[in-house]
Structure prediction request, 463 residues.
Amino acid sequence: MLDKVLQAIDGRKKESLAALKELLSIPSVSTKPDHKPDMQRCASWLSDKLKAAKLDVQILPTGGGKGHPIVVAKNKHQPNRPTILFYGHYDVQPPEPLDLWQSPPFEPTVRKDENGFDAIYARGAVDDKGQVWAHCEAIAAWQANGGLPVNLTMLIEGEEEIGSDHLEAFIRDNKDLLKSDLCLISDTGLYDRDVPAITYSLRGLVYEEVFLTGPSHDLHSGGYGGAVPNPANELCAVLASLHDADGRVNIPGFYDDVEKLTPEEKAMWAKLPFDDKDMMKELSIPSLNGEKGYTTLERLWARPTLDINGITAGYQGHGAKTVIGAKASAKVSMRLVPRQDAKKIQELFRSTLRERCPKNVKIEFESHGLSPAAVVPINNPATKLASEAVEVGFGKAPALIRTGGSIPVVGLMKQALGVDSILVGFGLPDDRVHSPNEKFDLDCFYKGTRTAAALYDRLAKLR
Prediction:
């Protein structure tokens, strides 16, 4: 039956791409209140398509109606079949800065990428609308050719890009609805164009915003400079103290729970086609940096990090204004590895900054997210079955990799539902996720759709 499904998918490439363009044209930017109608429109669009695939679909509210809706879809569940919970998200990042886009972010455009390959350019192309749509196409093909061989539940949320604030409560309130044997996620990517991949570990996240307040109002820098505390100066000094000369995070206790890589993992990664020079060329930088004593892949996948994501202070308009700003703030993200506790790291960060901040400046904090790292055992039966599916779709066996990013839902699924997740993504490293000119390689899209179809075939063997 899989062969027939794959033939159906191959025969619908034109229609599939046209539908993806429709989906990508909806500006479902979850962080902006003025896009709330677009969020509802996107959820309704997905609902209509999934109903057309003969699934039972619900659009369910979150946060008592204050959050963005979640789309839940199911086929007719049958006894003695494994239940697969597919997770994806339909919300996207803001497209700014708009002037850096070669084509409007919500007017999907197919053109050659920098390497001469066909790709579709739009916000959400690969994160995550394109990958969600690949699964929708695969599911529709199965439903039109005898039905899916597994019990399927789909959960497609609209708040992933803003921290999934209402997802935990939704899952805990709907455990029976979402009961499953395995969670399937396609929100990651290939290792590179020639190396498909299954991701078995993700880093966790602690995202903090720190605020420093000095005088009661902005001051003339000539009249007060050198005599009063300057929050911008003090903030820069505190932030500069957070790394030592070897690139290590300079927070006492930060590394206490970090596990060493296993020899098996080191051996697997050593076989991957990675070259520091290629990364330097891609990013137009003269050299790489980071924690001494580790390879670049180890730094990216298996070591915790701390990065400043934004700084705000003083006058930032056009021209000059000699002012000591009354306030300064910074956004700081910390990526965690398995066994590190997000709450503990948050507390260590805050206590360290309080200790280092001068007493004549008030310091305050706001959390923008806590999520643990996640790891799935390499010898998990689902990993072997998923590897077979990737080989069907891409024509070669996948590499088993970690990734430096965070997908909080992986830990949440384990905690709330007791299920492991398998991460099989179809994007490329140069797809510019969260950046202007985000894209999805069309060959990866089509092969990803075939892989999705094969995943449901292979995962039917879990029981």
About this structure: The domain at 204-258+304-371 is CATH 3.30.70.360 (Alpha-Beta Plaits). The mean pLDDT is 97. DSSP finds 15 helices and 18 strands in the chain. The two ends are 19 Å apart (CA to CA).
